[in-house]
User: Which sequence fits this backbone?
């Protein structure tokens, strides 16, 4: 049996143009199915990326160099920093001292937080905490006896994730007594409170590296060196640093995920489940809509058969029609998603875990598009093949 | 001597409704001659439309043979039947059955397009066919913009575009007013006379007997020598002449009333029976 693509396409287009409101409705349903199937995974991916970026931007940098096992500090930290900074492509590097400390303010106590001694100027090139000062100011290299604390430590009206009772309820200018693990006790003035709205750095406190070295009784060393390199090139630079003779322990930001890794893994599972369910719903919805739409055109199929239009032309006509529905729905859905992502880039979603920009991956878009197109084609093909093989009399008069 | 163009032998059709078998045709032998204009007549349920559907290859008989132009058409696979309908036969429905999304011209040239003719050829042939049925001024009108008679003429043009040898028409004037019906029947006569087109038409209008060459009478699914005049009465509401087999029937207070249309029946029920 010979087909006639020109006639099939002609009938498909004429049918669609004749029922513009129905066409718009079906395209809208398919496009919304596209949006609903992609937006969940895009948002979850946005969350995952936001968490990853927070680790890099506010906590660890891209690569973290730690002392060898059984050693407290990295020796010759300044010399190593120098070598690292000279490697082409390295954005910045800074050294930090990590101190075990408990903070007191009057009757309040805060423990279990990250406490670091930093070089404020170098730190600004690696960490973006300085951009999120809620109150007061960031540290300067000459500061002594000054401390800046994260909002989870400060509490007192700050937007926090944990309990207010566990904070110091501190304001800028308040005196905070710090008891260090080595037994040293020292009083600091609160110079600033920061809140980058990530789950780690809001629980950090920083003092200057000079204060830290005085408390620890060391000089020119580091508890860790944080390095910033372009995302995805970490392994390359670790290899380069090792070639330079730096033989301390190297870790990437991914190695430091810990809690975040659990959240990300959880998100991954949720994403997989929702995507699978979403795709199934999309498949069924689109299939049913197109199937019902074509089921109403049985009489027309009968008339076409009666006047000598063959089965192949009829089947192709309605399959092409369904393809047009599917492709139009996918394009409209993609435009909707694009507009939404552009909007979210400018106005990220404000979530308790920070600002999130939903991110669409090519693979998820391709999978959802393919699924929608497949369900549209199948939804058009099955009823038209079924109907085109039925008796003319049954098709026209039921 | 005239050549037989359509021949059926012992043509039977039994419809199955669940487990019940309903015989529609009980073994019909029909010969239609080339260039003949025949009417298939008979009371309601006599099998006229069934016979026409079978002869026009719209339906398959339970048994029997149909030979059209020397070809045993029942031996053909569906694809060949489709091609046969396209190239050799024309069919006109009672309900016009033109496609609502296509203009008069597009509806008309659809079969030509199926034959693979170019767009220019399709348009030319479509216009010729529409001109022939007096629709020259309505090429670009959609069916929704045409009257019943005009839609039927488009359907006739569509049936004629591929220059069929036989035209089948199933009560083509049943839904039309008497003036339009007359125009359509005159058009059939003209096509029959001028183009030599063989026409087989199902009708229940007694006056159509005078236009056609021959009448094939059916009764209870079999050929009948005696033509039974359809019973005529008057609409209970407006008084117009109606054939009992097509009348709208309403029963009230144990009495049966016949009407020409649902509107008359409803009006009568409201005004008289409802009181």
Assistant:
């Amino acid at each position: 049996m010979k087909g006639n693509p020109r006639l099939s396409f002609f009938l498909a287009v004429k049918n669609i143009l004749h029922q513009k409101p129905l066409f718009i409705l079906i395209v809208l349903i398919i496009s919304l199915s596209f949006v609903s199937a992609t937006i969940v995974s895009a948002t979850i991916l946005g969350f995952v990326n936001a968490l990853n970026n927070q680790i890099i931007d506010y906590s660890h940098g891209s690569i973290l160099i730690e002392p060898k096992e059984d050693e407290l500090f990295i020796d010759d930290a300044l010399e190593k920093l120098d070598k690292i900074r000279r490697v082409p492509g390295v954005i910045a590097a800074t050294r930090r001292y990590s101190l075990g400390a408990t903070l007191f303010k009057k009757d309040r106590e805060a423990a279990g937080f990250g406490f670091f001694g930093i070089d404020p100027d170098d730190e600004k090139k690696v960490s973006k905490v300085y951009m999120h000062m809620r109150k007061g100011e960031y540290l300067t290299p000459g500061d002594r006896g000054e401390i800046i604390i994260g909002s989870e430590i400060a509490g007192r009206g700050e937007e926090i994730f944990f309990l207010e009772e566990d904070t110091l309820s501190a304001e800028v200018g308040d005196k905070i007594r710090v008891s260090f693990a080595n037994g040293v006790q020292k009083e600091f003035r609160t110079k600033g409170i920061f809140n980058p709205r990530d789950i780690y750095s809001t629980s950090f406190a920083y003092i200057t590296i000079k204060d830290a070295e005085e408390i620890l009784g060391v000089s020119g060393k580091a508890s860790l060196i944080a390095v910033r390199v372009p995302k995805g090139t970490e392994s390359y630079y670790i290899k380069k640093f090792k070639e330079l003779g730096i033989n301390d322990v190297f870790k990437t930001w991914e190695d430091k995920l810990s809690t975040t890794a659990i959240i990300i893994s959880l998100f991954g599972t949720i994403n997989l489940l929702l995507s699978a369910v979403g795709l199934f719903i999309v498949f069924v919805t689109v299939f049913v809509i197109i199937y019902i739409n074509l089921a109403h055109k049985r009489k027309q199929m009968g008339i076409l058969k009666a006047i000598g239009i063959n089965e192949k032309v009829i089947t192709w006509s309605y399959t092409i029609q369904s393809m047009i529905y599917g492709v139009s729905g996918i394009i409209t859905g993609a435009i909707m998603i694009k507009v939404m992502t552009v909007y979210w880039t400018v106005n990220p979603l404000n979530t308790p875990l920070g600002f999130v920009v939903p991110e669409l991956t090519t693979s998820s878009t391709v999978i959802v598009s393919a699924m929608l197109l497949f369900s549209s084609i199948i939804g058009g093909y099955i009823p038209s093949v079924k109907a085109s093989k039925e008796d003319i009399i049954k098709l026209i008069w039921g | 001597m005239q050549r037989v163009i359509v021949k059926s032998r012992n043509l039977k059709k039994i419809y199955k409704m669940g487990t019940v078998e309903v015989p529609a045709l009980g073994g019909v032998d029909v010969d239609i001659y080339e260039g003949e204009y025949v009417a298939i007549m008979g009371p309601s349920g006599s099998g006229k439309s069934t016979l026409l559907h079978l002869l026009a290859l719209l339906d398959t008989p339970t048994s029997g043979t149909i030979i059209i132009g020397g070809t045993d058409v029942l031996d053909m696979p569906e694809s060949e039947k489709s091609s046969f309908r396209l190239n050799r036969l024309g069919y006109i429905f009672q309900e016009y059955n033109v496609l609502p999304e296509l203009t008069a011209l597009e509806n008309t040239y659809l079969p030509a397009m199926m034959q693979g003719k170019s767009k220019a050829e399709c348009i030319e042939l479509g216009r010729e066919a529409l001109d022939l049925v007096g629709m020259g001024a309505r090429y670009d009108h959609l069916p929704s913009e045409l009257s019943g008679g005009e839609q039927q003429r488009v359907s006739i043009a569509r049936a004629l575009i591929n220059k069929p040898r036989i035209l089948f028409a199933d009560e083509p004037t049943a839904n039309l007013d008497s003036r339009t019906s007359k125009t359509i029947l005159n058009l059939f006569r003209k096509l029959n006379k001028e183009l030599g087109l063989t026409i087989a038409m199902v009708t229940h209008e007694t006056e159509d007997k005078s236009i056609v060459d021959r009448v094939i009478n059916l009764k209870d699914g079999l050929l009948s020598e005696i033509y039974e005049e359809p019973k005529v009465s008057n609409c209970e509401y407006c008084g117009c002449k109606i054939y009992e087999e097509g009348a709208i029937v309403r029963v009230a207070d144990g009495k049966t009333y016949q009407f020409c249309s649902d509107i008359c029946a409803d009006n009568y029920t409201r005004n008289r029976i409802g009181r």
Notes: Chain A has a mean pLDDT of 86. Chain A has two domains: 5-54+261-397, 68-247. The two ends of chain A are 26 Å apart (CA to CA).
